[in-house]
Amino acid sequence: MTRRRAAVAAVAATVVGGYSYWRSAAFLRDPPRVPPDEEDTVVAAADGYVTYVKRVEAGQVPVAIKKRRSITLTEYAGVGPAGAGVSGWLVGTYMTEHSVHRNRAPIAGTVTLREHRGAAPFNRSMARMTANLVLRQRPYDRECEYLLTNERLTIGLRHAGGATVYVTQIADLWVDRIVAHTCPGDQLARGEQYGLIRFGSQCDVFLPDALVASVDVRPGQYVWAGESVLARTVAASTPIPSRRPT
Fold first, then answer.
1. Which of 4, 59, 85, 222 is exposed most, by the fewest CB atoms within 10 A?
2. pTM of this structure
């Protein structure tokens, strides 16, 4: 009996130790990131797989959940009146358990919005997205109800040219909390770290037509926050001068 208890204790210690290591050394790791030298680039806000690049027309986001065909951008991301009727592109990035879960600003700009929305009524699991990615079932967001129901936090970043990019952090079922160390009025550099989502998560970036000249990623592609190029901006405006983030 003593040996059996010792074996059970050893197994439990191994599980707890492995989980603690993953949480501290792997999940919460913070590697340095350097954005590309080209100032006309929009960088990824999160590490992970691009799950969709959706065309948004007049503020309507197409969805592949049950029989719903679209949802308003204001309802999806909580962007407020400024996001109503705006056209552009919505890029979703799904973070796996192996991804760095720290989020970075896709452009240099001024924070104009910080909007938190709780779960309705509770956070749903993102396991369906994982299954769709593993089985290559497209569209990857098919039947992923968490996209409409889970807790989220959106920030708006106004580019020097006047257009606003919205970044939405979406929590998973087992999430501890969404963290965003920024408030309206703050200045963020392109690629600067501003928050994270503890445990599983997704991060969406809305890119308005007024800013974007081209979108350079596709579903299924893996991207790295602060370094991978999501899109390129129009040449009309000059980015806000900023330090190189690490």
1. 4
2. 0.86
